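Working notes for the structural subgroup meeting. M.R. asked for a predicted model of this chain before we commit to crystallization trials. I am recording the input and output together here so anyone reviewing the notebook later can reproduce the run.

Input as submitted:
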Amino acid sequence: MEPSEALNLHRNAIRQVVESHRVHNARVFGSVVHGTDTDANDLDILIDLSPDATSSDIGAIRHELLTSPAAAVGSL
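Returned structure, recorded in token form:
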């Protein structure tokens, strides 16, 4: 599955995972934005950390996304 397809199918779930931690302003970049993604690409998400965010927040986001249905994209 192309990352753009996974994003379209799971956008709300991805948003909920990201927003449940101390980060904000999540946005997609890379091949998905440029419309050049293939099954070999991953989904690139850039986030801004809140002042009280920790590396545990980032790890939790990554873990939750990789174990969610959105992980069908292969690597987030």
